[in-house]
Amino acid sequence: MPELPEVEAIAHHLREHAVGRIITRVDVASLTVLKTVSPSWTDLHGREVTGASRHGKHLDLECGESHLIVHLARAGWLRWSDSLPAAPPRQGKGPLALRVHLGGGGFDLTEAGTKKGLAVWIVHDPAEVPSIARLGTDALELDAAALRELLAGRTARLKTVLTDQSVIAGIGNAYSDEILHAARLSPYATAAKLPEESVERLAEAIHEVLSGAVERSVGQAVARLKGEKRSGLRVHGRAGLPCPVCGDTVREVSFADKALQYCPTCQTGGKPLADRRLSRLLK
Fold it and tell me: How much is the pTM?
């Protein structure tokens, strides 16, 4: 799933390549991707792209008084091209969901797989998008004091709180694993019970991990962002490999639709976390 650094890099790419250009046509290849009816996508025709920004993990293409808001979800992506086909795409065929023509070039919004989550809104104000209206503090705006306030009274696991967009906006499954590893904290730690020193380490890790990923990603071609993300990960997606810090084996805990990775030596005092899926297999 694209998270804060990748969405920020895509917004930067659009600021460099799309701003100042006119939307000549919008092709909708999958009507289910549109979450708003009015304004219509045809209202964007002839509008100039005036900006591109980010709200948490939402991409915001500013078109004068209108905003094309995109949430790429788990398997969505933006593919930029300097030359797009002139013929409209066939609806319901392949991964293409929506195409935006900007002169001769533009971009496609695509989604792989059968579980669809890619969402597009056309609004006059980003706050009209419910998931934006619910966003918590942007992860890059947090300091230790603000983080301490957010964690106070929360009895959920730290991993859960970090990925709750209504609490902290922009962090997903991958970067939460990286942040917890950098902060040397268990994903199962209770958020409200963190000692002061741990809160400070966590705030520092959030800033360092995300800022570092943004620096590596911004300026890259959009097509290379996924590879850039993978190359910078130290524990996420590396189960079974040695931890780059201590050499212990990176472990995994699996859930119904995702998994987390961690280092026992760095994060849990050497104790593996219970993996219910593995426990069921051993019965």
Answer: 0.93
